[in-house]
Amino acid sequence: MSDPIALSGAPGSPYTRKMLAVLRYRRIAYRFLPPSGPALAGLPQPKVALLPTFYLPDEAGELQAVTDSTPIILRLEREHESRSLIPADPALAFLNELIEDYADEWLTKAMFHYRWAYEADIAKAAAILPCWRGFCVPDQELAARGAMFAERQIGRLRYVGSNAVTGPVIEAAYVRFLKAFDAHLTRQPYLLGHRPSACDFAVFGQLTQLAEFDPTPMALTLKTAPRVTAWVGMMEDQSGVEPAQDGWNDIAALPETLIALLTEIGRVYPPVMLANARAVMAGAAEVEAVVDGQAWSQQPFPYQAKCLQRLRSSRADLEAGARATVDSILAPTGCMALFA
Q1: Is 11 exposed, middle or buried (0-12, 13-18, 19+ CB in 10 A)?
Q2: What does the DSSP 8-state code read for residue 89?
Q3: Which end of the chain, N or C, is less surrounded by CB atoms within 10 Å?
Q4: pLDDT attached to residue 183
């Protein structure tokens, strides 16, 4: 039996929650290390300090600090055979990748926006998040840490595009997503059928904050989509689920509720991703786009340009028949703009 995988993170990180839930569902042994303290002594440092940080051996057996959740999921797929998160059908697997990317790179805009745009949410985050890096400090020091953290995070809103103009766009998109997902859960328990896929855990990660931590979206989520709130609680630990081999949707007969979710993705995600990629390529100082008929601006985000390129490469790598199937599904949703 291999040694447990070591990772460090915090409950306020949606990607930490995403990956812990992945490890639980896949029944992969792990050691969860607090984001500060003696347990991290001597471990390698990531190039960019993000949570969660996994400590995994490279090809030479040297321990490395890695932080990008999607490649880590794919590595776990290669190294652990059972309870896969990737559908066997290549076209459905691509839809899984697309929805995972939307959750990681768009739904996180809602998470970040609500947390740092409303006073009640700022106050809770500033009070609680610093505690997860150490409880045993005087109140005055904890308050100072919280104020410093909040100031830094509010300053980073420009990276996700949250401002007075775009805030209503983000919030309207979140409500539409909630309604579409709630409707989908009347048909099946997971996004792509009756067993979880990687995209379920990506959506779950963002919703752990939106539906369970930050007060403004938490109340909104419960009021708008009670099934979604319940789903988040269940997704925390799926280790007892016994997935059927044929538990994923038939690519030839996808439920209309999934098409509705893809249509919501196509409504908001492509214009931002495309404008960001253009800005990064041109070395522009600002991303300018129109989302749902409204002006959108944010600071360029090079990582999301890489995400778009990765999606395009995955589609291009599909066998011709699978690619044609994907294109026919996405054509009426607006998502094909990503690949134009």
Answers
A1: middle
A2: S
A3: N
A4: 98
